[in-house]
Amino acid sequence: MYDDVLKEMEKYAEENNIPIMKKRGIKFLCEFIKKNEIKTILEIGTAIGYSAIKMALVNKDINIVSIERDQKKYIEALKNIKKCKLEKRITLVLGDALKIDLDGKFDMIFIDAAKAQYINFFNMYQKNLVDDGIIVSDNMEFHGLVNEVDEIENKNLRQLVTKLVKYRKFLEDNEEYQTKFYKVGDGIAITYKKDAYDD
Ligand code: SAH
Ligand code: MG
Questions:
Q1: How many Å lie between the centroid of ligand 2 and the Cα of residue 118?
Q2: Ligand 1 test: best mutation among 64, 69, 73, most atoms within 8 Å of CB?
Q3: How many domains does the chain have?
């Protein structure tokens, strides 16, 4: 059942130009969730619910809250989650993640929304992370463009990629957190609090 729904979603995403996670990227992320026994996830950027459903299917103890600001995508995601009977474990929030104040702490925060806002998402939602929690950021390579910013002719795109490069630097230079970058999918960053693992 899940396979059919997921296949349909992949097709819908392709046809409607919705940037859902790439196959290898989501596989990597799901393995990471399993290995680290992550149970609670906050996702910023639901789109049509593809990554949320994939992550929820890792195992039955996983609960996800996911935020989406676009109403059409939010409704599409609701439908898809229902089809998979995951509505008890995936809670969707409709709204701009930069304007929402969420309670509760999560084992993992997955940032996959507006690329220009990553630093803001990170700063805003770190209060919702458990002490030994993990922040995952998607699209760190941005189709390889992060390595050739100066050659991008389109101004808006150049500005966007410049912001992503700034975010990478923000993570690298962060005193409190440590980050590893993986070139899988469209590039994934895994960030931990420094003091959580050294004793
Ligand atoms: N995680 C999804 C893909 C998300 S695409 C998957 O892999 O299946 C990015 C989504 O983030 C888009 O649907 C966009 O509408 C949403 N988004 C962008 N900025 C946002 C914001 N400030 N608050 C909430 N959602 C946002
Ligand atoms: Mg993404």
A1: 12
A2: 69
A3: 1
Return d(Cα 80, Cα 100) in angstroms, integer.
24
119 inside domain: yes
Range of the domain at 114: 2-194
The per-residue pLDDT for range 130-178, each reduced to its tens digit, is 999 999 999 999 988 888 998 999 999 999 999 999 999 999 999 999 9
pTM above 0.85, yes or no: yes
What is the layout of strands, in order, in the sheet containing 129-138?
A: 90-94, 63-68, 40-44, 106-111, 129-138, 188-193, 177-182
How many angstroms does the Cα of residue 199 sit away from the middle of ligand 2?
Answer: 34
CA dihedral angle for residue 9, residue 89, residue 36, residue 41, rounded to 10 degrees: 80
- Tell me how far CA of residue 148 lies from CA of 46, 142, 187, in angstroms: 29, 11, 15
199 in a domain, yes or no?
Answer: no
What's the CATH code of the domain at 78? Answer: 3.40.50.150
173 neighbors 126 (Cβ within 8 angstroms): no
Assess if residue 90 is contained within a domain: yes
- Tell me if 166 is assigned to some domain: yes
